[in-house]
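Researcher: We plan to redesign the surface later, but first we want a full-length starting point. Tokens attached.
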């Protein structure tokens, strides 16, 4: 009569090999996970191996059948795979940034990966449906942005990429190199030229000697330019024109100075 004494591992997920140890196991033809039966990969008098099938999460009785005889059952805990469904922010700068991942099956999370950029750090599990992680800093860019899949690894395995809801887009740091024209009155349109000027969220005029920034209306932006309108109310003088994207704000440089006449 087949008898089971142990299962290794005692908890896991589908696709992993489960080893059943006991006596009288050489005639095993089925491994039973509750009501679901699977053909074993190997069977000897003392050991049976089987690949764990997809199951419902929770504790499941596992037994073996040899001929017409079924063994005693031992408890196995099946862990559902993680299912991240959303990020607190889908965009950010090249620098390491902390964000939240939402979904299910996250309680035993051991890692979060941001595509080819690498593994996140400072992982903290908040609950089965939320965790926080610091994404790795992005290296050199070949385009202004880089979108990667965010996947989670838990005791239940690694999540399958879901697409846009769990993708994170890194933005390279924007720059301003020149303005055209470089002077004019209120209401003048100036073309701000630079790099990585995608997804611009604001364009500001800040007095070069210091003072409050004033937001300008802008339009027609591309990766290399954005057209900004000199905002009303600006006094005559010189101003640094800066653009902000998810990659950050452009640094102050000689080429960003506009003179309001």
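Model: Full-length starting sequence:
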């Amino acid at each position: 009569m087949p008898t089971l004494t142990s299962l290794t591992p005692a908890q896991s997920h589908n696709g992993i090999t489960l080893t059943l140890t006991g006596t009288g196991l050489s005639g095993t033809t089925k491994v039973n996970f509750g009501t679901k039966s699977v053909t074993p990969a190997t069977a000897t008098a003392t050991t049976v191996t089987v690949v764990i099938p997809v199951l419902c999460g929770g504790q499941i009785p596992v037994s073996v059948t040899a001929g017409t005889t079924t063994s005693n059952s031992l408890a196995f805990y099946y862990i559902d795979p993680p299912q991240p469904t959303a990020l607190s922010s889908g965009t950010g700068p090249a620098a390491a940034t902390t964000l939240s991942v939402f979904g299910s099956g996250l309680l035993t999370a051991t890692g979060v990966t941001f595509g080819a950029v690498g593994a996140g750090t400072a992982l903290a599990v908040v609950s089965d449906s939320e965790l926080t992680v610091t994404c790795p800093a992005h290296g050199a860019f070949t385009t202004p942005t880089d979108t990667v899949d965010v996947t989670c690894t838990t005791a239940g395995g690694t999540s399958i990429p879901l697409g846009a809801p769990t993708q994170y887009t890194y933005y390279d740091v924007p720059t301003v190199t020149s303005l055209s024209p470089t002077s004019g009155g209120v209401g003048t349109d100036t073309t701000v030229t630079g790099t990585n000027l995608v997804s611009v969220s604001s364009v500001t005029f800040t007095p070069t000697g210091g003072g409050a920034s004033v937001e300008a209306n802008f339009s027609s932006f591309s990766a290399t330019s954005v057209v900004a309108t000199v905002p009303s109310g600006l006094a005559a003088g010189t101003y640094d024109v800066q653009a902000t994207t998810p990659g950050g704000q452009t640094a102050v440089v000689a080429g960003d100075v506009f003179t309001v006449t």
